[in-house]
């Protein structure tokens, strides 16, 4: 994995008499996701931009792997740092493949190596290379463009990635999907990430460490999310985190922390009698129907399945929520409570079936976590 620690050493940026960032000192270990969070004007984005010298510190240092960024030629520095912004910034007249390959081309990679890297990244972000590689940004959805922006930033395997409100311009459903996609990608690649958001829920979900900043550019607290929620450093942090700190702690657990059930499934075109027998043997009232690619189509009542012929996809209830291993238990609980079907379907990044998640399984996970916390306390 290509990763490097980032350290701010008494870094400040003065704009007139008021400092946008004042005496910022913190260390982001290699491979961590550090989320900078706080109200507007607290210096989050200024701190981020000091890393790649879009803003240069007035005093102090910013170090990447122990090297002062001010002592590195600026173009060379920026080619070693991935950068993702809310507006994506894809080049409209270049294809997806050309966009992703921008930095590798600038670094002199061979055509074959660049093409291979493009294919790898498209697969990693859950997009079919054959479908999207030759498309233009205008032919993609907002969520797809944002994913391409992330892939472009990671193309040259940078040791550090900067992300400034990267998912703020998409709707809440797409945002949750992109957050999960990025967490899965980070688990695979392990890049050091500095991530700016104004949303404390996003900070808790995304960060291995959270830096809460307050007006005037001062660092109020820098801790792992569990410590931030359990022990706010001062009244400002307590108010910013919110009164529902206990509920927010559900964001620290993910579907991957829960025992996912197998469920009873059937495929389109499968023998109806065999499916009905399987359902009766499992003592279930519902069977989950999958297509030929193992993507869920919806639930079928066992008593509606014919005793002869093959399974038909017309009579299914598709209202069951879909979750991923990276989905937080808070989000999963919210989706289940809002759904008529009290069982979520767990899918991978391509939407393929992995298992089922029930309210009972969530309840067990919550109780187990409460027991662990009580033991620690």
* CATH architectural arrangement of the largest domain: 3-Layer(aba) Sandwich
Major sheet attributes = 6 strands, mixed
Level-1 CATH class name of the largest domain: Alpha Beta
The tally of domains stands at: 2
pLDDT < 50 runs, ≥5 residues = none
**Topology-level CATH name of the largest domain:** Rossmann fold
Q: Number of helical runs?
A: 15
Give the helix/strand class: alpha/beta
N→C terminal distance: 36 Å
Rg estimate, integer Å: 23 Å
Q: Got a strand count?
A: 16
Task: Describe this entry's structure for a reader.
This protein is of the alpha/beta class. The protein is built from 15 helices and 16 strands. It folds into 2 domains: 6-248, P-loop containing nucleotide triphosphate hydrolases (Rossmann fold), CATH 3.40.50.300; 256-367, CBS-domain (Roll), CATH 3.10.580.10. The protein has a 6-stranded mixed beta sheet with strand order 6-7-8-3-9-10, sandwiched between helices. Strands 2-1-4-5 form a 4-stranded antiparallel beta sheet, covered by helices on one side. α13 (272-281) links the parallel β11 and β12. The radius of gyration is 23 Å and the shape is globular. The model has no long low-confidence stretch (mean pLDDT 86).
Q: How is the secondary structure organized here?
A:
Blueprint: E1 6-15, E2 18-28, E3 33-37, H1 44-51, E4 59-64, E5 67-68, H2 74-79, E6 81-85, H3 96-100, H4 102-106, H5 111-124, H6 129-132, H7 142-154, E7 160-164, H8 172-189, E8 192-197, H9 200-206, E9 209-214, E10 218-223, H10 225-230, H11 235-241, H12 245-248, E11 265-267, H13 272-281, E12 286-290, E13 296-301, E14 322-323, H14 329-337, E15 343-347, E16 353-358, H15 359-376
Parallel strand pairs: 3-8, 3-9, 6-7, 7-8, 11-12, 14-15
Antiparallel strand pairs: 1-2, 1-4, 4-5, 9-10, 12-13, 15-16
Helix pairs in contact: 7-8
């Amino acid at each position: 994995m290509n990763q490097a620690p980032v350290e701010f050493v008494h870094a400040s940026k003065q704009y007139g008499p008021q400092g946008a960032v004042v005496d910022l000192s913190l260390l982001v270990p290699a491979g961590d996701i550090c989320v900078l969070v706080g109200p507007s004007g607290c210096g989050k984005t200024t701190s981020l931009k000091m890393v790649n010298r879009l803003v240069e510190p007035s005093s102090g240092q910013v170090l990447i792997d122990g090297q002062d960024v001010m002592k590195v030629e600026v173009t060379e520095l920026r080619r070693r740092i991935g950068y993702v912004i809310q507006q994506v910034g894809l080049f409209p007249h270049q294809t997806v493949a050309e966009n992703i390959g921008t930095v590798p081309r600038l670094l002199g990679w061979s055509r074959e190596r660049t093409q291979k890297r493009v294919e790898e990244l498209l697969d990693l972000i859950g997009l079919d290379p054959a479908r999207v590689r030759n498309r233009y940004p205008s032919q993609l959805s907002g969520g797809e463009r944002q994913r391409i922006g992330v892939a472009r930033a990671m193309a040259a395997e940078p040791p550090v990635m900067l992300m400034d409100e990267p998912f703020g311009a998409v709707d809440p459903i797409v945002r949750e999907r992109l957050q999960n996609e990025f967490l899965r990608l980070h688990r695979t690649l392990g890049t050091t990430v500095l991530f700016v958001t104004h949303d404390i829920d996003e900070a808790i979900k995304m960060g291995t460490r959270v830096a809460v900043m307050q007006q005037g550019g001062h660092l109020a607290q820098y801790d792992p999310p569990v410590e931030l929620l359990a022990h706010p450093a001062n009244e400002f942090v307590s108010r910013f985190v919110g009164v529902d700190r206990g509920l927010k702690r559900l964001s620290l657990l993910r579907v991957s922390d829960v025992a996912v059930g197998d469920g009873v499934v059937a495929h389109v075109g499968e023998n109806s009698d065999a499916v009905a027998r399987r359902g009766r043997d499992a003592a279930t009232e519902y069977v989950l129907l999958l297509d030929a690619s193992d993507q869920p189509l919806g639930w079928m009542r066992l008593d509606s399945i014919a005793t002869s012929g093959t399974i038909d996809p017309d009579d299914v209830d598709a209202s069951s929520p879909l979750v991923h291993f990276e989905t937080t238990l808070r989000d999963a609980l919210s989706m289940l409570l809002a759904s008529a079907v009290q069982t979520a379907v767990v899918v991978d990044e391509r939407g393929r079936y992995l298992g089922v998640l029930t309210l009972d399984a969530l309840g067990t996970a919550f109780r187990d976590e409460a027991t662990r916390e009580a033991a620690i306390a």
